[in-house]
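Budget justification aside, the reviewers requested a transparent look at the raw inputs and outputs of the sequence design task funded under Objective 1. We therefore reproduce one unedited record. The lines immediately below are the structure tokens for a 983-residue chain.
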């Protein structure tokens, strides 16, 4: 035995090289590293005598010599979790291509003599086949329960070599695995350990039927030659992964049914690259051999057939030949063979025009495909246009090369249309790209009909830990299929896959999963307002009165649009990407999602976009504008992209904020929301079911804290003092407002746009920009606009002497004063209402209450307007204070302040200045232009006044999106009456 062990070590390892020995025994592992091979043989001999040791293994490939220091020339018994063994990264170079043939049997037992012989015979067939393919002779060995083939190779340890070895094993598995034996495809990793010949293989108990056997070398070649890399590449590529000649499904041909119809015996079937591989019982192409023939039907319906013997096509495509051999035999005599003229007419006549495809191409070339899709969607599902646009962008992401895909999570109350919205959008895509019905996490891997680019809808499904892991893998590896290896009930190894470029749509009332899942999703809410309920009801009445649904032609055109988009996977380039700015980037995945939204919209409009030299679609600024609008919607009233809140959670927080209370109980919130107590409790605390754990507002929102208090009171009628525990929740309104601020995105005006596009976008009304025109789009305006960031609220005079005003300042009275050529003065005035400062930073900030000068060069009249200029503020540099601090704001000088600059230094910022910095696109309302008749009184306080910024707001205008206090409302009425001549 010791001689056999020494012989095996000498064959498998480099002389003087480091090798790890690893023994598996009764749930524990023994391991050591050796460069003294004589000592290694002695210690293995002693270890092999232990009957508890099931098997002794060594590393096959060259190990990093530094690992010797882990357990130098000694075997440590019973490794702990902290004791490392050899990993793939510890291998310096690959020396062996290992082929392990196992007999199919129950796990944990030795093989019978019949099973053992079946594996040895299969090794003979594989060795003979590889010899036909140009492989040199191999080491043939008995593993004790199966058979081994070892081929000498010389490859680096890199991803390419790993893929090459993996492909070779996959080919051998497909060609030679059957109901009796399997080729182990898991041996592709570099750090694979291998049974040491000369040692005992003990699986289960040794019985006469299933005895323990000693692993041994059966034969050695006279010279062990290295397999040329090109032979490995030939073997790995022998079976096609996809048939390029048949990219579209073959209508009417089911290969399994076809083989059965023509009596072609099938020995075994197995999944293959998403399709099915049939191993034929006899070769139909040659009588010189029986085995070796196979046929594959791919997921797209294409068929490949051949024989792996080199003398019989060597794996070349022979499906047309096979089909002709059998279908010709079955042709009925009375069938009339078409004449030459008929054949010519058949081949020359043009195919019937596809009117839906032609219409789709017209829309893609000249129209608005997104608007058409959304309009068709709204013919079946009223409203929820933001939800529909997110779903459409998710579908478009499947055809963008440089993306990780866009996946959508829809939340909202039960019965409000989440499922209907998703299924309506699914109805607009081809049937082959949607998964019908419900599906479990395991079933995803076993669905052989699942094809790349499928939409997976999970409707009101609790995401188990396994399903969340699947989803994380699918979103992280969007462009690659996910493989899962398992054993069937017959103990056969099966490699299952979820194909690439699948998108996930999740629809659920409550939280959809942990942060790791939600951070990968577009988070959008269904519209569950009373107004939406009314619109849905009116639509239902119209549909019932008409007796029909949406036009089928529109639905078929939508499907044709997606078929055209899915024909190619294209890269998209954003030439102005350097100019895109975010107001906050705490979640680093969100900027990537905005970029993906831009690319997806450009991809949908690809026939209206330019291409670069590499064929990539070039996005336009209008794609950014549309993406920014959608991104803003899902960060505001239509979604919780930044906060990851569901619709109910956001409503709960908004309700507490409007109540204006600092401490509340579950009962109080329940009464305000009108929800059952248990649902309200779960909103706050979260919950755990038998599948997953969901976070509540206590974990998600930093403004909500839990208080476990002891309350002292007097028992009524008794007069005794009692104490009881009460659960309270504190709510910090300022922290909530800071935390829930919407993320703003914009395009800077800079030199990074090298494609000659238009200058930067801005969403700031009332500001002069370098647009080439005045802000009210008057081409007669005096030449140069203000440089970016400088504020002008002037009433200007055009060259004809007529007044033209900035949007939103038409109702402001002009102040008296001398006209100053080329300069507008902005200063405080007694008869003009104060206007809170503009939002964009100015380059030369004036002191609080002072004035700055407009350099537009307009001829104008002085206007007295009070402006509060702001210093340049980056909101990411500030952190919220737990309580307001009585310190002056370094921008406006107000007290108290709500945040402090990171790193200290005594630089404080008030809430209003922080708010203006976070919303650079939002202007404060001007009191002189508001109509008091659009305001309604609210029952509770709804935050600070948008005009004075100090008092509590109790009036709201849905039209002007403004909240005001009692004082500002009264002043507004007085000013309005003064203009109307009312006394």
């Amino acid at each position: 035995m010791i001689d056999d062990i020494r012989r095996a070590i000498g064959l498998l390892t480099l002389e003087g090289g480091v090798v790890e020995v690893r023994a598996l025994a009764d749930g524990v592992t023994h391991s050591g590293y050796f460069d003294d091979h004589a000592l290694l043989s002695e210690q293995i001999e002693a270890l092999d005598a232990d009957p508890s040791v099931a098997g002794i293994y060594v590393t096959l490939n060259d190990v990093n010599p530094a690992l010797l220091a882990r357990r130098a020339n000694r075997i440590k018994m019973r490794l702990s979790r902290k004791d490392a063994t050899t990993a793939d990264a510890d291998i310096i170079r690959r020396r062996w291509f290992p082929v392990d043939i196992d007999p199919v049997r129950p796990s944990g037992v030795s093989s019978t003599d019949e099973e053992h012989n079946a594996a040895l015979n299969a090794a003979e067939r594989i060795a003979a086949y590889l010899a036909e393919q140009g492989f040199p002779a191999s080491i043939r060995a008995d593993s004790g329960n199966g058979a081994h083939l070892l081929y000498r190779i010389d490859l680096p340890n890199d991803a390419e070599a790993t893929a090459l070895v993996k492909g070779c094993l996959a080919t051998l598995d497909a060609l030679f695995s059957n109901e009796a034996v399997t080729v182990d495809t898991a041996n592709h990793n570099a750090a694979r350990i291998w049974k040491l010949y000369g040692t005992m293989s003990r699986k289960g108990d040794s019985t006469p039927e299933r005895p323990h056997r000693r692993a041994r070398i059966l034969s050695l070649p006279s010279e062990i030659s290295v397999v040329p890399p090109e032979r490995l590449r030939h073997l790995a590529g022998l079976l096609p992964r996809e048939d390029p000649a048949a990219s579209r499904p073959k209508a009417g041909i089911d290969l399994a049914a076809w083989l059965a119809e023509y009596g072609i015996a099938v020995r075994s079937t197995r999944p293959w690259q998403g399709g099915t591989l049939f191993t034929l019982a006899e070769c139909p192409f040659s009588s010189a051999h029986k085995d070796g023939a196979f046929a594959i039907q791919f997921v797209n319906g294409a068929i490949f057939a051949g024989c792996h013997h080199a003398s019989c096509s060597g794996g070349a495509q022979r499906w047309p030949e096979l089909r002709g051999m059998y279908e010709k035999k079955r042709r009925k005599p009375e069938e009339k063979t078409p004449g030459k003229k008929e054949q010519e007419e058949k081949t020359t006549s043009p195919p019937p025009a596809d009117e839906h495809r032609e219409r789709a191409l017209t829309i893609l070339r000249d129209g608005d495909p997104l608007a058409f899709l959304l309009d068709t969607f709204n013919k079946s599902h009223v409203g929820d246009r933001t939800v529909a646009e997110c779903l459409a962008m998710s579908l478009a992401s499947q055809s963008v090369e440089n993306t990780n895909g866009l996946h959508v999570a829809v939340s909202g109350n039960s019965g409000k249309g989440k499922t209907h919205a998703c299924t309506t959008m699914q109805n607009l895509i081809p049937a082959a790209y949607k998964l019908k019905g419900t599906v479990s996490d395991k079933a995803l891997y076993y669905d052989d009909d699942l094809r790349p680019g499928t939409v997976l809808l999970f409707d009101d499904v609790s995401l188990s830990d396994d399903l969340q892991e699947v989803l994380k893998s699918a979103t992280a590896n969007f462009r690659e299929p996910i493989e899962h290896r398992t054993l069937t009930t017959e103990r056969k190894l099966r490699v299952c896959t979820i194909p690439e470029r699948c998108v996930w749509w999740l629809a659920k009332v409550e939280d959809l999963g942990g942060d790791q899942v939600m951070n990968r999703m577009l988070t959008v809410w269904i519209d569950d307002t009373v107004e939406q309920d009314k619109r849905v009801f009116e639509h239902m009445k119209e549909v019932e009165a008409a007796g029909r649904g949406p036009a089928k032609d529109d639905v078929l055109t939508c499907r044709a649009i997606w078929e055209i988009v899915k024909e190619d996977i294209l890269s998209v380039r954003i030439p102005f990407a350097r100019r895109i700015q975010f107001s906050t980037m705490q979640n680093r995945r969100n900027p990537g999602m905005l970029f993906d939204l831009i690319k997806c919209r450009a991809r949908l409009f690809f026939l209206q976009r330019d291409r670069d030299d590499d064929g990539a679609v070039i996005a336009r600024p209008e794609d950014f504008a549309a993406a920014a609008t959608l991104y803003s919607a899902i960060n505001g009233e239509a979604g919780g992209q930044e906060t990851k809140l569901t619709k109910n959670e956001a409503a709960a927080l908004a309700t507490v904020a409007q109540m204006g209370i600092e401490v509340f109980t579950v009962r109080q919130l329940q009464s305000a929301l009108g929800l059952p107590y248990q649902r309200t409790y779960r909103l706050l605390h979260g919950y755990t079911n038998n599948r997953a754990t969901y976070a509540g507002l206590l974990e998600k929102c930093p403004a909500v804290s839990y208080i476990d208090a002891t309350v002292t009171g007097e028992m009524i009628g008794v007069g005794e003092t009692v104490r009881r525990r009460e659960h309270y929740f504190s709510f910090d309104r300022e922290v909530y407002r800071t935390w829930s601020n919407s993320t703003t995105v914009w395009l800077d005006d800079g030199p990074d746009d090298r494609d000659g596009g238009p200058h930067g976008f801005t969403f700031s009304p009332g500001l002069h920009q370098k647009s080439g025109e005045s802000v009210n789009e008057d081409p007669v305006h005096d030449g140069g606009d203000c440089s970016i960031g400088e504020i002008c609220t002037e009433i200007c005079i055009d060259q004809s002497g007529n007044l033209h005003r900035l949007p939103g300042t038409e109702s402001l009275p002009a102040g008296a004063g001398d006209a100053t050529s080329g300069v507008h003065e902005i200063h405080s005035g007694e008869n003009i209402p104060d206007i809170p400062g503009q939002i964009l930073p100015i380059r030369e900030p004036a002191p609080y209450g002072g004035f700055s000068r407009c350099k537009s060069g307009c001829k104008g009249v002085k206007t007295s307007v009070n402006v509060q200029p702001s210093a340049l503020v980056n909101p990411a540099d500030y952190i919220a204070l737990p309580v307001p601090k009585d310190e002056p704001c370094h921008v406006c000088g107000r007290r108290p302040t709500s945040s402090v600059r990171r790193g200290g230094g005594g630089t404080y910022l008030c809430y209003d200045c922080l708010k203006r910095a976070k919303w650079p696109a939002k202007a404060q309302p001007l009191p002189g232009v508001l109509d008091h008749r659009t305001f309604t009184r609210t029952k509770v306080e709804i935050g600070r006044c948008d005009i004075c910024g100090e008092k509590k707001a109790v009036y709201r205008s849905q039209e002007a999106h403004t909240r005001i206090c009692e004082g500002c409302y009264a002043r507004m009425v007085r000013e309005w009456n003064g203009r109307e001549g009312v006394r």
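The chain has a mean pLDDT of 75. Residues 25 and 52 are 6 Å apart (CA to CA). Computational costs for records of this kind are itemized in the attached budget.
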